[in-house]
Amino acid sequence: xQLVESGGALVQPGGCLxxxxxxxxxxxxxxxxxxxxxxxxxxxxGVAGIDDDGxxxxxxxxxxxxxxxxxxxxxxxALQMNSLKPEDTAVYYCAGGPGTGGPFGYWGQGTQVxxx
Length: 116
Fold this sequence. Notes:
Strand content: over 45%
Largest sheet: 7 strands, mixed
Structural class: mainly beta
């Protein structure tokens, strides 16, 4: 099983960034996929998730700014981030599990997003 995130970068406040997670080794279309972030010095928090039927879920702090999507043909999950704020600075992880909301048995290595 592999999950590989990409797209992290340094971006100015108000800017946009698109993260992508390429996966392999499991039945992607059957899994709940999520983006989890860990701000510096803080615990991990769920940001957005998407069910196998395409239903999306967001934490309140990113609603209206972030959009999660998945491509079952390419086994990828993406996170489009708009109107970025300094408090969005974190390492962003892609994760997946068989049920909505976790637990998530599969994790990527993370990608750094810095808003400054």
